[in-house]
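Supplementary Data S3. Sequence and C-alpha cells for construct A.
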Amino acid sequence: MRRKIYVKMTKKCAVIQFPGSNCEYETLKSLQASGIETELLRWNCTEADFSLYDAYVLPGGFSFQDRVRAGVVASKLPIMSFLRKAAADKKAILGICNGCQILAETGLVPDTAGEGALEMALAPNTKENKAHGFICDWVYVKIENPGKNIFTKAFSEDDVIPIQINHGEGNFKFHDNISTNFENTTVLSYVDSTGKVDSKYPINPNGATNNIAGLSNKNGNVLAMMPHPERASFLTQVPSYISSDWAIKKRTEPLNRSLPGPWAPLFRSLKNWLEG
C-alpha cells in the first residue's frame, strides 16, 4: 500500500516592479529579513505567473515618471486586473508611496462601496493651502484599528511610530460623496512625537485630509500608505536625532544591522498571516 505524501507549499510574496520603481530592492530585503519568501515580479508578467503568489507589495518610486499624475498610468496596466481579482480573493496587498498612489487610482482603497470605484487620489503636497513641493523627512504616525488589517495586527493603537516620507503628491483627497469617517477601518494618521494629532505643518507634512497617512480597504486585506516602512524596518535606519524611544535605543545599542526597527511589526504581521 502506497503512503500519500502531503507537501505543504510555502506561501510567497511578490514585490511588483514597475518602470520607474526605485524602492523594490529595499522592500524585498525587509520582507526577506522577516522570513517571508519574496521575489520581484515584473509589471508585464502573465496572469499565470501572477497567481503563484499570496501577497503583493507595490513599492515606492515614480512609475512612468508620474506622467499625468502619480500612479495613474500604472493603474491602467493589465496587471491591475489581476490585482483586483487578488483583492477580491482576500489576498494581502500593500502599496507604499507610489504603490499607494497606484492603489488609489485603481480604486482598491478605500473601496467603501465594494465596487472598486475611484473614490480618492493623492494630490500635490500643500502647506497652509499653498503648494509645498517634494518632501523628504521623518514623521510620526499612529494606527487606528490596527487589528482590522493584515499588515498592522502586530501594532498597538498606543504606538507612536517614526517613519520616513519621500513624496511630492501625498495629500489624501476624497470625492465629495465619500465619508471620511473611517471608524471601523484601519487608518494611519500623522501625529507629533507625543502622539497628538495636529493638522498644522510639519505634523501634517502634506495637507492630507484628516492627517491621513495610510488607509485600508473595508475588508482589511489591502493597505495603502504614503510613508516608507521599508526605510524603518531596521534599527540602523532610524536617525539618532529624532524624538523617539527608537532613537534612544539606537544610541545605546551596539551597532547591529539585524536589530528590528519600528516598522518591523508590519512585515511580521504579514508573515504571521501567511503562516496562519
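Construct B, processed identically:
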Amino acid sequence: MRRTQFEEFLRRITPSMSEPSASTAPRPQRPIVPFLRLGSGDDPPHLVAKKCKHCGALFWGNRVACARCHRSEGFEEIRVSNRGTLWTYSIVHQSMPGIPVPYVAAIVDLPEGISVRCTLVDVEPDPAKLQFGMPVELITRKVREDKDGNDVIAFFFRPARTA
C-alpha cells in the first residue's frame, strides 16, 4: 500500500513506541478542542457534548443558549460514543501550506444523534476504500507541541476494527 503525504505526516508526528524517550516523566498533554477528554488509566480518550437541559439538543463546545429551543437554562456535559458511522466525506487535494494532501475530511454520525467533523485516518484517500455508513472509531494522536512544550492532542476517526 502506497503511503500518502498525510499518512507520512501523521507517522512523523506520532511517537513510536520503540523510540527512546528523553525523559521517563510523561509530558503534559492538552486537547486541541475543548470537547476532547484525554482519559487516563482504563478510561480511554472520548468526546463530550453539551446537552440542553430543556429540550435535549446536543452541541459541541460551550453554549449560552440552545439553538433549538432558544432557552438558556443550562447544559449538562455528556460523554458520547467512540464509535460512529461515516456519513459523508471529501478527499482534500489542495490545502494550506504545511498540510500534506491528499487526506479525508469527514462527517461522522454518532449514536447519540450528533455529528462531528473530523479527519479520517488509517485508510487510503480513495473512494474505492471508503463507504458511506462504514463503521468508524475515535483515536487520538499528538499533532504538535505548544509554546510551553505540552503535547497537543487531536482526535481523528479511522475505520473500526473488530473487537
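The domain at 5-13+28-39+81-159 is CATH 2.40.50 (OB fold (Dihydrolipoamide Acetyltransferase, E2P)). Strands lie at 29-31, 36-37, 46-52, 58-59, 75-79, 83-92, 103-109, 115-120, 135-145, 151-159.
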